[in-house]
């Protein structure tokens, strides 16, 4: 499917490397980088954990939907989305319809390894983060796959290498 807006949107689970790889891609392309979670925090004047505490996940998802709807309208950006952004059908439509979507796949073991010391992730503040990651993966992986134009595994890969693989793929595409 041909896209009308030359932007790249990164989707995938927490710990997949979306922000790190997104920054590299934006730098290489000389495009603007956005991280939807950082945008939400900046606009709310509060951290994601505080938003979850005060508004619950539902309140956070409303904010996320507004940010994704707005940011995906911009040309020549790289957007790293939150892991749960694909739960909303409108988010999936915005992402798939307005840019090139890359699913950065990370196994549950890799997600756990990368996030185990991160207290900034409200959904992992549980007695068994591995079980929580497994449950999230079961629900979200099919949505990531359905939304993505390209799937790249990030397990055991340096962000530099992953960014190079994405760039190599998109540079072969005439629309980007």
Q: What are the defining features of this structure?
A:
alpha/beta; 176 residues; disordered N terminus; single chain; globular
Secondary-structure blueprint of this entry?
Blueprint: E1 8-11, H1 18-29, E2 32-35, H2 36-44, H3 48-71, E3 77-80, H4 89-98, E4 100-105, H5 108-115, H6 129-147, E5 150-153, H7 159-171
Parallel strand pairs: 1-3, 1-4, 2-3, 4-5
Overview of the structural elements:
- With 176 residues, the protein is of the alpha/beta class.
- The protein has a single domain, classed as P-loop containing nucleotide triphosphate hydrolases (Rossmann fold).
- The chain is 54% helix and 12% strand.
- The protein has 7 helices and 5 strands; from the N terminus they run βαβααβαβααβα.
- It has helices at 18-29, 36-44, 48-71, 89-98, 108-115, 129-147, 159-171; strands at 8-11, 32-35, 77-80, 100-105, 150-153.
- The protein has a 5-stranded parallel sheet, sandwiched between helices.
- Helix 2 (36-44) crosses helix 3 and helix 5 (108-115) packs across helix 6.
- The longest helix is centred in the middle third of the chain and has 24 residues, at 48-71.
Strand order of the largest sheet: 2-3-1-4-5
**Spatial extent as radius of gyration:** 15 Å
Arithmetic mean of pLDDT: 88
Counting structural domains, the number is 1
The N- to C-terminal Cα distance equals 13 Å
Kindly report the name of the CATH homologous superfamily.
P-loop containing nucleotide triphosphate hydrolases
Largest sheet: 5 strands, parallel
In CATH, the architecture is 3-Layer(aba) Sandwich
DSSP, total strands: 5
Classify the beta-strand content into a percent band. 5-15%
Number of helices, where a helix is a run of at least 4 consecutive DSSP H or I residues? 7
* CATH fold group: Rossmann fold
SSE class = alpha/beta
The CATH class is identified as: Alpha Beta
Topology as a string of helices (H) and strands (E): EHEHHEHEHHEH
> Uncertain spans, ≥5 residues at pLDDT below 50?
1-5
Identify the overall geometry.
globular
Q: Helix proportion of residues, in percent?
A: 40-55%
